[in-house]
Amino acid sequence: MTQPEVSMYASVETVSVRVDEPAMFRVQMHIDEGAPIYAADPGEGGEMLGIIPLRVHVLRGSHISVFADYPDGKPHPDVPSDAPEVRVCSGSLKFDVAIEQTAQSSEPATLGITYQHFGLSVAQGYENADERELYHNPLFAPKTVELDIDIRCG
């Protein structure tokens, strides 16, 4: 099975940061119809299953930190109401990202976004609905994409 597409765009090509002078930009993601990704807060079910939530993170550069105002996500409709909630994001997303320089350095810095497509199955065949369990069916491995942003530290 081919991994669904997720396209990503940053609102800037270059961002300049200095110690005590953070910078912000916006990320836009478009997720293929019918192929949601786990939300940054994947819900109780997502945490129990150890799935990989949506994350913006530093790939290279120990002198910067990154923070994101992630979208909330929504409960996935295929997860039964009696099972722990699993939150996903789909369609077009926009969220703000802040980057700050934490130490002086001329080392290059790179940011990435990691995500994983939804892949849960519900154990069937139990007579008692309380015994119903969710289990992670990793059809798609987590994927990390490097953001194409020139980060300039001062």
What do these coordinates show?
With 154 residues, the protein is mainly beta. Helices cover 5% and strands 44% of the residues. The protein is built from one helix and 14 strands. The chain has one helix at residues 43-49; strands at residues 6-10, 14-17, 23-31, 37-38, 55-60, 64-69, 74-75, 87-89, 91-101, 110-115, 120-122, 134-136, 143-146, 150-153. It is elongated and about 50 Å long. The termini are far apart. Residues 124-132 have low confidence and may be disordered.
Strand order of the largest sheet: 1-3-9-6
Helical proportion? under 10%
> Mean of the pLDDT scores?
86
The separation of the N and C termini measures: 45 Å
- Seen as an oligomer or otherwise, the chain set is single chain
Indicate the structural class. Answer: mainly beta
Describe the secondary-structure layout.
Layout lengths: L5 E5 L3 E4 L5 E9 L5 E2 L4 H7 L5 E6 L3 E6 L4 E2 L11 E3 L1 E11 L8 E6 L4 E3 L11 E3 L6 E4 L3 E4 L1
Parallel strand pairs: 2-14
Antiparallel strand pairs: 1-3, 3-9, 4-8, 5-10, 6-9, 7-8, 10-13, 11-12
